[in-house]
Give the backbone structure.
Amino acid sequence: MMPSVVVFDIGGVLVDWQPHLAWTEEFGSVAETKAFMERIGFSERNLRGDNGELFAEMAEELDDPEDQRRLAAYVPNYAKTVENAVEGTWEVLDALKAKGVPVHAITNWSVETWPEGLKSHPRLGEVFGTLVISGEEGVIKPEARIFELLCERAGVAPSDCVFIDDSPTNVDGAKAVGWDAIQFTGAEALRVALEQRGLL
């Protein structure tokens, strides 16, 4: 059975997320910023944020007071990291909506940084029928429960859904619970994949 509902990831699909931009102005170079991020284990801590933890509390775990200050400042600096949309994807989303295809979203996103992201991209709070934000739920992709939450709240079955995500791991997570899924590599390839499924 062909899917009838499209579920978007947001970061890396609709919004270009560049976390180093939260600190690049302070450090003066991308290389120094990324060295700092590596030193504090930013990727791991960001995932914990996506799972509901607070950045100020994670900052207290660091030994260096300056690193503590910088990580705690991530939330107020967050808007700098998501200034740009991913080219072409919003047009695909709008085309789906114009055809009457239900559009939902599941995003791994911190409960603290989500309101900051909405300041840069207010449509994110308006465009989806059902929106599941990991930081609000305390569960992250690719865990099965986050996909189940979307189905429960949108009133759809797994076989109804096609999921779009730039992460192969999250694509596999969706497939594991019976969804169709597309790994996002660009807007034009996405449009073709949706056309093949009769959605565009």
In short: The chain has a mean pLDDT of 97. The chain has two domains: 5-16+82-196, 19-78.
